[in-house]
Specification:
By secondary structure, this protein is an all-alpha fold. Helices cover about 80% and strands about 0% of the residues. α2 (about 35-70) packs antiparallel against α3 and α3 packs antiparallel against α4.
């Protein structure tokens, strides 16, 4: 079995790379130019599809198991689970606005900029909290049976629809 904490770190690193792409597009947008909306849709869609449907479901299972073993983490873990819902909602709102722009709607720049900036800050700080305070504790407190349950909490990911996104990421390294 692959070390689940290492896999968790790797997913977070990939998410941060994706957030970095969005941050670059935000800078373009802020500069008054047209960002690559299609790339933005692809990135946010991936973070919604995989992040919200697979990664966060597995984290929620890990959090529940960790809270039962380390009771002082219960409240911080509940907050992180709440953040999963906020991130999902913010991502959906962002996708709606970008798709509206792509369909020709006029959406105030300030609105898109605010939604995107909020999404970036929120998601990045969420990952940082998990990396700093949860993963080290989970590695020590959770056993093999727990990690199997975490893996089984969400279906195996099929991200074949995101092959072009993976190629773009690889080209940027």
């Amino acid at each position: 079995m692959t070390n689940p904490v290492v896999a968790w770190h790797e997913e977070h690193a990939y998410f941060r790379r994706l957030l970095g792409l969005l941050r670059k597009e935000l800078d373009v947008f802020h500069g008054g130019e047209r960002p690559n909306y299609e790339l933005m849709v692809e990135v946010v869609s991936y973070l919604r599809d995989y992040g919200d449907q697979v990664h966060h479901r597995r984290e929620d299972e890990a959090f529940a198991r960790l809270a039962s073993r380390v009771p002082e983490l219960e409240l911080p873990l509940v907050r992180l689970q709440q953040e999963h819902r906020v991130i999902a909602h913010a991502g959906e709102t962002l996708l709606e606005r970008i798709n509206a722009i792509l369909e020709g709607a006029i959406v105030p720049r300030e609105e898109v900029e605010m939604i995107l900036a909020t999404y970036l800050v929120y998601y990045d700080s969420h990952i940082a909290r998990e990396e700093d305070s949860v993963l080290p504790r989970a590695e020590r407190a959770l056993g093999e049976e727990d990690w199997r349950a975490v893996k089984d909490a969400a279906p195996e990911a099929q991200d074949t629809d995101y092959a072009s996104l993976r190629r773009r990421i690889a080209q940027q390294t």
